[in-house]
Amino acid sequence: MNADKPIIILGIESSCDETSAAVIKDCKVLANLVANQKIHELYGGVVPELASRAHQKNIVPVVAQALKNAGIKKEELSAIAFTRGPGLIGSLLVGASFAKAMSLALNIPLIEVNHMQAHVLAHYSLPPAPSFRGGEKPTLFQADPILYKLLREFAETHRKIPTEAEDILWTQLRTKQLGYKFRRQHIIGTYIADFICHNPPLVIEIDGLIHQMPDVKENDEIRTKWLNEHGFDVIRFSNNEVIGDIDGTLEKIKSKLENLRAQVSPEGGDLEGATPSFPFLCLTVSGGHTQIVLTKDHLDMTVIGETIDDAAGEAFDKAAKIIGLPYPGGPLIDKYAREGNPNAFKFAEPNIPELNFSFSGLKTSILYFVRDKVKEDKDFITKNLNDLCASIQYTIVKILIDKLMTASKQTGITEIAIAGGVSANSGLRKEIINTGKKMGWNTYIPPFEYCTDNAAMIAIAGHYKYLKGEFVGQNVGASARYEI
Length: 484
Hints:
This protein is α/β, with parallel strands linked by helices. About 45% of the residues lie in helices and about 20% in strands. It has three domains: about 10-125 and about 455-465, 2-Layer Sandwich (Nucleotidyltransferase, domain 5); about 145-265, VSR Endonuclease (Endonuclease, Chain A, 3-Layer(aba) Sandwich), CATH 3.40.960.10; about 280-445, ATPase, nucleotide binding domain (Nucleotidyltransferase, domain 5, 2-Layer Sandwich). Strands 3-2-1-4-5 form a five-stranded mixed β-sheet, with helices on both faces. It has a five-stranded mixed β-sheet with strand order 12-11-10-13-14, with helices on both faces.
């Protein structure tokens, strides 16, 4: 190992329904691309066979695009890191097989990574560097290079020739004039946002008369739903609103930004991206896992508490299904909860010994409660949707935070972090900050793009394993159950 040579890791993530590839150089993220699989929405959950087939289709273009965006040739790679487990075995096999073949072809080390360990290490990702012309860096990427090229050409053209309303608004948003960084004509997934702020996550759309047509309205609703599911709020203005009342438009944008910021950090403090000191406790919450991880070093982790049945993310999605929200329902519960009363309804909380969790009883409590209320009033859910979501979210978050407080008291550790897909939930992010202030914790929250499954966290874990020479051979296999 040459100490003067940069360590460049290609990370590959394929544990569930998202194909992701990332390139990091000495822990700095150069590219982090994610291809989502929308087909599972039709079935109300992830279909393993469909997921593995989609990974086979996506993995080559995603890896190729990641290398291209990073400006790295495959011959420059130091090693390839891949998710070995836990996850769906068919999905894991696609990523593992590709990584093994590529490392063999390039004659470079192969590194296996535990997916949950990687979630914890996402806190050690250095800020990503823009890798697109004009500094435009999409958060999410739909793995179709031809479509992406068309989107990029369209976005570049519209930046040069904006509408009158877009031009007026951009003069007020650019260079952080409102205190927040905005980008214009920004690619996100298969869409182009007129204006986007990543922190707090807000998309601004400027609509012409064509958006009043029924089919365009329907497409706008689909687009907004997708953005909401991926953590973004959307605010829309007509051309006339912007041109005729720019001051009023800016006030609405400022109000929305401040409300979003308050949901993440009540006093405006930005804790995203900070690095926890060892030892620290990490509450790792996702669709498949809920754990409290005692982290003594980058690769020295011990699970001191975990769910004995459903995971927190699973509880969100199952509760959403009970009240009629589409899959994935967790982000929608978060959205509606922002407008509801968290104390409107009470649900059962488990009494589980030690530091373990349980969410199956809560799911049953919600099911029976809703069933009984709907018998009394068939429109109960519609009338009380915001309050229902707020109460469900409050209960799940309370269960998580209560156990985390207990863990902190038992271990004496006050360095506290969260990670995993559910760490993007605004209620959890807000509550861990509030609790941290009461308990004297130093709290750490990952940036939104590193909460859900992504390859940057796999590459980061690979970096620390590379430093210790922890490589694997071609006989390594995927593992659906793989403990830290």
